[in-house]
Amino acid sequence: MIILISGNSSTGKTLMSQNLLEKYKIPYFSIDHLKMGLFRGGKNCGFTPLDSTVDIGEKLWPIVKGIIMTNIENNQNLIIEGCYILPHHIKDFDQTYSNKIISVFLGFSNNYIKEKFTSNIVEYRNAAENRNYPEERTIADLINEHSDFRKKCLDNGINYFETDKDYQQEIMKVYNFIENQMSVIEANL
Which key words tag this protein in UniProt (predicted)? Predict the structure, then answer.
């Protein structure tokens, strides 16, 4: 079984992966680590860390897809998280694989970004990993990113979860969704 967690930066993907690892003892793999490993390992990887999420996502997807397929073929469980899993990627799997994949895409509503930009989004962006840079995105940048991401998720009919008012309360819906989907997959094994 594979759990895919995607979303824009600072939506809680890494923290969720860490929490799922601790609860279910399923290891997780950060696509950010793959990106930086390829970049630092050889400057001819075809991208820089400053390239767009879409450009990097398309370059990394064949590798990530191969990891997913290999894990499923070997009956191994893995959580994969990162903003480089793009909504249309989920359609790349036939039913043999897709029946063993749980995907969740996380986002923030425009209202949440406006009201909680400093107090929640910027404040907690280091909850699971150390980010040693100042927040350079403005509220308008974040609204545009999330609006574009929301549209892509909805256009592709994937499992999109949006925080609108209370992050802690609303993120529990995602954990419950994952747990329910895990039960369905385990029942069909």
Answer: Kinase, Transferase
Instruction: Name residue, tokens 């450009």.
Output: 55
Retrieve residue 38's tokens: 């390829």
SS3 137: coil
What is the C-alpha separation between 108 and 153, in angstroms, rounded?
13
Q: Going by C-beta distance under 8 Å and a sequence separation of 6 or more, which residues neighbour residue 150?
A: 107, 160, 162
How do residues 7-59 score in pLDDT, each as one tens digit? 987 788 998 999 999 999 999 999 999 999 999 997 788 898 889 999 999 99
- CATH number, domain containing residue 70: 3.40.50.300
* Number of separate domains in the chain: 1
Please answer whether residues 103 and 27 qualify as being in contact, where contact means their C-beta atoms are separated by less than 8 angstroms: no
Domain of residue 30 covers 2-187
